[in-house]
Amino acid sequence: MTKGRATTWQERIEIVLYCLAHHKDYGKAAKQFQVSYQQVYGWVRKYEAGGEEALRDGRGRTKAPEELTMEEQQRLAMKRLEYENERLRAENALLKKLQEFERRDR
């Protein structure tokens, strides 16, 4: 069984078209392009449902600030504040520990 590998959008389109040209022979396409059967099967299903754009990998994409709604902007600001608070708490705890060690050494 071939392990899956990272592919580009163009490669996925090529693989799907190859598979469809060979009467949905997923195994043959997987072997030909050295990807897993599951990847080919999933890409063909996505392609049939949404065309070439459905094969784009949108994971990890962040929206530009102009694209965010007011609620999303507020949620993002709240997350930033929570992160900053946690960082300050950790810094404060570290300083307290440091003071305690310095006091013990005297």
TrEMBL record:
<feature type="domain" description="Insertion element IS150 protein InsJ-like helix-turn-helix">
    <location>
        <begin position="11"/>
        <end position="61"/>
    </location>
</feature>
<dbReference type="InterPro" id="IPR036388">
    <property type="entry name" value="WH-like_DNA-bd_sf"/>
</dbReference>
<feature type="coiled-coil region">
    <location>
        <begin position="71"/>
        <end position="98"/>
    </location>
</feature>
<dbReference type="InterPro" id="IPR055247">
    <property type="entry name" value="InsJ-like_HTH"/>
</dbReference>
<dbReference type="Pfam" id="PF13518">
    <property type="entry name" value="HTH_28"/>
</dbReference>
<protein>
    <recommendedName>
        <fullName>Insertion element IS150 protein InsJ-like helix-turn-helix domain-containing protein</fullName>
    </recommendedName>
</protein>
<dbReference type="InterPro" id="IPR010921">
    <property type="entry name" value="Trp_repressor/repl_initiator"/>
</dbReference>
<keyword id="KW-0175">Coiled coil</keyword>
